[in-house]
Amino acid sequence: MSDSFDVIVIGGGPGGYPAAIRAAQNGLTVACIDAWRNRDGSPAFGGTCLNAGCIPSKALLESTELYHRARHEFAAHGLQVAGLAADLATMQQRKANIVRQSTQGILALFTAAGVTPLQGRGRLLAGRQVEFTGHDGAQRLLQARHVVLASGSAPTPLPGVPFDGARIVDSWGALEFSEVPRRLCVIGAGVIGLELGSVWRRLGAETVVLEALDQLLPMADGQAAKEAARHFKRLGLDIRLGAKVTAADAGADGVTLRYTDGNGEHSVGADRVVVAIGRRPYTEGLLGADTGVRLDARGCIEVDEHCHTTAAEVWAVGDCVRGPMLAHKAREEGVAVADRIAGRYAEVNYRTIPGVIYTAPEIAWVGQTEEQLRAAGRTLKTGSFPFAASGRARAMAAPAGFCKIIADAGSDEILGVHVIGPLAGELIAEAVLAMEYSASSEDLQRTIHAHPTLAEALHEAALAVDKRAIDALNR
Ligand code: FAD
Ligand code: NAD
Questions:
Q1: pTM score of the predicted model
Q2: I want to staple 422 with a disulfide (CB 3.0 to 4.6 A). Which of 20, 79, 176, 398 is the partner?
Q3: 56 Cβ below 6 A of ligand 2
Q4: 401 vs 432: CA distance, rounded Å
């Protein structure tokens, strides 16, 4: 096998593997090095997203939502379910199968595209040499014309609450529980805290979520965050805001977490603790001496708007660089870099990256929130439409939430779209496309939406921007 490639990608997650495939599609010779090993030691491409993030969390969210609905909502459909029980072992096996299928799929895609897969660690050296150390310890020195760094991120540890892999775990540990904890405490009411908190709460865990900030979901639209808080409360998530954890005492009966809030000092007991206070860029052992690649103050690999690092012909994408830590952002950057390397035009529109939280109801958005826009002094018009007024949502027994569209009062250009409700993560795609084309709310108003669909709610929200909604009162 040649030791020289046009492109070497280090990291095979959603940033790295699409970069490798696109580079090969562009006629370049490509190797993709990935170090991921699962708990049983088996190597697997796909990074955090496929092995321990997006995909396994969504598998458990789906199973547990079905269980929750069967318990609490099926009766309203006239469906009586006798002897309903959650079989966690089967649920976990199903999740593992989905993960395996997905990660093995990447190897098949590499073979088809002609990408050389190398499982082990990569280390960039000066002059775009790459030291590859296989899982068996064997080393090879490779040479590349271009290197793409896509080393991802790792959970941020919390001082005083050290991970022990058993009772105090990160999100990966929380996806692997073999028993439903009786008492669960999640530190951080961010995306992971709310998604995984929902999973275990639905299965019966008494779940406390401790959040340092005084506000829930500050990145979401204020009205959507308020609506979400109501639903989390109804589910039984005990979210305590302004709670700063100071220490964890592990004993025979579990873990006692001590925290302070505006009312003083408190403690809460738990059988399992999940620390989900954010992730940090992961670059351990990635860079040798004199590579010219600089890190910024937060430990991110420094890149320009084209994902070019401070070293010639070395690029970096995904969670290890600035910007939101999202799989679709990583993927778009990876593909764009592979096109740029091949001399093609490529651009990532950072203003239209959607965000989705896969709770029930789902929360999704693109663009800016009303709060951000008003703080920036923009003059706005907004339109909302509740799912309670959507025939399809009512038929699905999913009338919670709304679609909200924010447009510039003068030009009518859509500046932000916020959806909380059934399949919000699917609905937001239309809004992303609209904003990508700088659509006005009138453009959406004049687009035909099939009836009866949830997407009609987005259409009606666009009409409501001009107080012309048909199926709801225009206020
Ligand atoms: P990663 O996926 O972390 O991949 C990096 C890869 O590089 C890893 O395989 C790592 O082992 C490898 N690597 C690192 N250093 C080296 C080295 N020196 N040599 C070789 N290989 C190396 N995002 C979403 O958009 N939607 C979601 O629903 C979602 N859910 C999530 C749920 C959880 C529980 C978590 C933890 C994250 C979730 N994310 C989600 C975030 C998403 O997983 C990340 O944004 C995404 O994986 C980033 O992709 P990446 O390729 O940059 O990094
Ligand atoms: P996050 O940034 O979404 O949330 C972390 C939360 O922890 C914040 O609300 C923060 O205020 C809080 N926090 C920080 N320090 C704290 C402390 N000491 N005590 C209590 N609370 C504290 O991070 P996350 O939930 O860990 O997720 C990590 C990354 O993974 C995010 O960037 C996210 O985008 C990504 N992710 C995305 C999805 C999705 O797209 N659906 C799902 C899971 C994870």
A1: 0.98
A2: 398
A3: no
A4: 19
Q: Which fold has domain 4-155+280-348?
A: FAD/NAD(P)-binding domain (3.50.50)
Q: Peptide bond preceding 181: is omega within 30 degrees of 0, i.e. cis? A: no
Q: How far is the C-alpha of 66 from the C-alpha of 81, rounded, in Å?
A: 12
For residue 397, the CA-to-ligand 2 centroid distance in Å is 30
Q: Ligand 2 centre from 226 Cα, in Å?
A: 18
- Whether 451 sits among the annotated catalytic residues: the reply is yes
Domain coordinates in residue numbering, the chain: 4-155+280-348, 168-277, 352-465
Ligand 2 midpoint to CA 120 (Å): 29
Q: What is the CATH number of domain 352-465?
A: 3.30.390.30
Q: Which two tokens stand for residue 356?
A: 């989705």
Model confidence band, residue 407 (pLDDT cutoffs 50, 70, 90):
very high
Taking only the tens place, the pLDDT of each residue in 216-266 is: 999 999 999 999 999 999 999 999 999 999 999 988 889 999 999 999 999
pLDDT digits (tens, 9 = 90+) for 62-93: 999 999 999 999 999 999 999 999 999 999 99
Mutational test site, ligand 1, from 34, 38, 42, 49, max ligand atoms within 8 Å of CB: 49
* Cα 286-116-346 angle, rounded to 5 deg: 75
**Residue 239, ligand 2, Cβ within 6 A:** no
